[in-house]
Amino acid sequence: MSYCVHCGVELDRTEVSCPLCNTPVNNPNQPIDINGKLPYPTLKGQVDPVKRGDSAILLTVVLLSTAVACGALNLLVFKQGLWSLYIIGLCALLWVFFIPVLIYSRLSIYLTILFDWAAVALYCWIIYYQFPVNHWFLRLAVPIISLLTAFVLIFTFAIRYFKTSILSTAFLVFAEIAGLGVGLEIFIRMFLNQKIHITWSAVVLVCCIIIDGMLFTILKRTRLREEVRRRMHI
Ligand SMILES: [Zn+2]
């Protein structure tokens, strides 16, 4: 029987060096049994990393089975109302949102965003189909979804084609929040047939203008910018 001279662990006859501390084994009374059977497996049982395609299949199966199961429940057991349409629509929505990320990585990001727009619009239409009040789908849902999509497209374009730092990205985000607030309030007032003016979104707008003014100054003054980056580690 050999023991490691460094850490004292008991060693197998086949061990050339200590498996814990790697100290070479040197016991003149017991030569190393080079041909002996090793006491532990030599092959590492590594699991292959999951590929995007596998995740896509799993997501598709989960969403599809959820949609089919809810549809069947609606048809056969809980027959009142078309409640399963919401869940089926939501499954379709999640599928459209996540599958391009998992499979079609070469698909243009702008096209993906437009598909998302269509998916959200379709989901709203499913709800509208059951509650067709005041033409809210065309007069409220479509303008708001389109406005959001337009801002997402502008944001994506800006961060892809301009060299944006965290500070300039923050500048863009606050500018978009201001635009989104004003747009939302105008669309809601138009839907409610009210006079078009802004109240709450004016407050949001003013706050965003102050923050963006500060960010713009920091971005334009090199010394300020470097100081902020140094302090905030960005
Ligand atoms: Zn050792």
TrEMBL record:
One Pfam entry name: DUF6320
Superkingdom of origin organism: Bacteria
Residues passing through the membrane, by range: 56-77, 83-103, 110-131, 137-159, 171-192, 198-219
Keyword NAD among record annotations: no
Keywords: Membrane, Transmembrane, Transmembrane helix
Protein name (database record): Uncharacterized protein
Originating organism: Anaerobium acetethylicum
Upper taxonomic lineage: Bacteria, Bacillati, Bacillota, Clostridia, Lachnospirales
